[in-house]
Amino acid sequence: MEPNCVQFLENKTILVTGASGFLAKVLIERILRLQLNVKRLYLLVRASDKKSAEQRLHSEIFKKDLFRALRTNVGDASLKAIISEKVVPVPGDISLNNIGVSDSNLLQDMMQEIDIAINSSCHYEI
Where is the chain membrane-spanning (predicted)? Predict the structure, then answer.
């Protein structure tokens, strides 16, 4: 990322849809590696509840080898703390109203806080 882009992301709250997809994983890793001062990352994944969303994020994103450089730079414990502090798992579905977010408090927080929305999800029907 260009230095101006990195600076632009400082203290921003970002929504990433399709967070478990390939492009989103790369984007999330780059943001966390290059701009630790990002305020918050709302990461939308298809899941029925917050616990399932959190499990998907950890197993399909943060435990991947893609995060090795970040893990090496900050350490495992610090990475866990960063994720705990900055990442909000969002269970939902981009094809539904309100992106499938059923928790009205979470939806309200998102609407008030999000500065940038990045849609990397796809919706398809077979």
Answer: none
Which residues on neighbouring strands pair with residue 45, listed in sequence order?
91
Query: CB of 4 within 8 A of CB of 51?
Result: no
Distinct helix (H) and strand (E) counts, the chain: 6, 4
Structural contact between residues 54 and 25, judged by C-beta atoms closer than 8 angstroms? no
Domains detected in the chain: 3-119 (3.40.50)
- For residues 92, 88, 98, 108, the Cα torsion angle rounded to the nearest 10 degrees is 150
DSSP category for residue 119: E
pLDDT attached to residue 85: 95
